From TrEMBL:
Residues of the full protein shown: 177 to 402 of 402
Region of interest called Phosphopantothenate--cysteine ligase, as start-end residue ranges on this chain: 15-226
Positions of the DNA/pantothenate metabolism flavoprotein C-terminal domain: 10-221
Entry note: cofactor: Binds 1 FMN per subunit.
Top-level taxon of the source organism: Bacteria
Catalytic activity: N-[(R)-4-phosphopantothenoyl]-L-cysteine + H(+) = (R)-4'-phosphopantetheine + CO2; (R)-4'-phosphopantothenate + L-cysteine + CTP = N-[(R)-4-phosphopantothenoyl]-L-cysteine + CMP + diphosphate + H(+)
Cited function: Catalyzes two sequential steps in the biosynthesis of coenzyme A. In the first step cysteine is conjugated to 4'-phosphopantothenate to form 4-phosphopantothenoylcysteine. In the second step the latter compound is decarboxylated to form 4'-phosphopantotheine.
Its EC number(s): 4.1.1.36, 6.3.2.5
MF terms (GO), sorted A to Z: phosphopantothenate--cysteine ligase activity; phosphopantothenoylcysteine decarboxylase activity
Protein name per Swiss-Prot or TrEMBL: Coenzyme A biosynthesis bifunctional protein CoaBC
Organism listed in the record: Denitrificimonas halotolerans
Amino-acid positions noted as binding CTP in the UniProt annotation, renumbered to this chain: D102, K112, P131, D132, I133, L134, F149, K163, K167
Length: 226
């Protein structure tokens, strides 16, 4: 009965999900990225579609099949990801599962860079901040119910709670990426959900697809509480 209620709450709702890493170009053949596999975001997209939502999945470069009944938009950089999310608005729920590069090279060289014969010791690459996709969408007047992720290697709940507050989120999903069994590239996850009242809910280690269904059910029961 709880499941039925949860699923009905998402029927016809538009859920926007970000997933995977971003790639930030240094030159035409080189880039900065991270180890995000995209599995959590894709599992969430699948679970949300199964719950009857209209799902838009904006994802960085990953090698994963598109779940049934999910509209997938492929992007490369953080700035592309923000533009794709803004174009997909309005939505009822945003789940930001992407591992967005915090910085990008200030300039992306038009041609493949050559080693500088005058600097045999090394070279310096200047990086500048990328936009925060989640915080940008959460500050709009038509803001959706906003769910962030906090992947941390230390001070998990403290950092997660700070992100919830700073980005004006409804929920934050904290996960400990110092544990490689539940980290970036693994099939399993274990999470703690923190809400605005700082109430915590734990989902113990299981497959990312089961965690995704639990998280979607949790969102379904919380979406109308705000
Ligand atoms: N996020 C985002 N855009 C960014 C950076 C982060 O949308 N440019 C989102 C992530 O998808 C995640 C949440 O913000 O849902 C937290 O990301 P995280 O990297 O853990 O936190 P940051 O705010 O980037 O802080 P830091 O990396 O310094 O811990
Ligand atoms: Ca970050």
């Amino acid at each position: 009965a709880a499941d039925l209620f949860a699923h009905q709450a998402l029927t016809g709702k538009h859920i926007l999900i970000t997933a995977g890493p971003t790639q930030e170009a240094i030159d035409p053949v080189r880039y900065i990225t991270n180890h995000s596999s995209g599995k959590m975001g894709f599992s969430l997209a699948e679970a949300a579609a199964e719950a009857g939502a209209k799902v838009t999945l904006v994802c960085g470069p990953v090698h994963l099949p598109t779940p049934d009944r999910v509209e997938r938009i492929n992007v490369i950089s953080a700035r592309d990801m923000l533009a794709a999310c803004e174009a997909a608005m309005p939505c009822d729920v945003l789940i930001a599962a992407a591992a967005v590069a915090d910085y990008r090279p200030e300039v992306s060289a038009e041609q493949k860079m050559k080693k500088d014969p005058n600097s045999v010791d090394g070279m310096t690459l200047k990086l500048i901040r990328n936009p925060d996709i989640l915080a940008t969408i959460a500050s709009r007047t038509d803001r959706p119910f906003c769910v962030g992720f906090a992947a941390e290697t230390q001070n998990l709940l403290e950092y997660a709670t700070t992100k919830l507050r700073d980005k004006n989120l409804d929920l934050i999903v904290a996960n400990d990426v110092s544990n490689t069994a539940i980290g970036f590239n693994s099939d399993d996850n274990a999470i703690t959900i923190v809400d605005r009242q700082q109430q915590q809910t734990n989902f113990s280690q299981t497959s990312k697809s089961k965690i995704a269904r639990q998280l979607i059910d949790f969102i379904a029961t919380h979406i109308n509480k705000v």
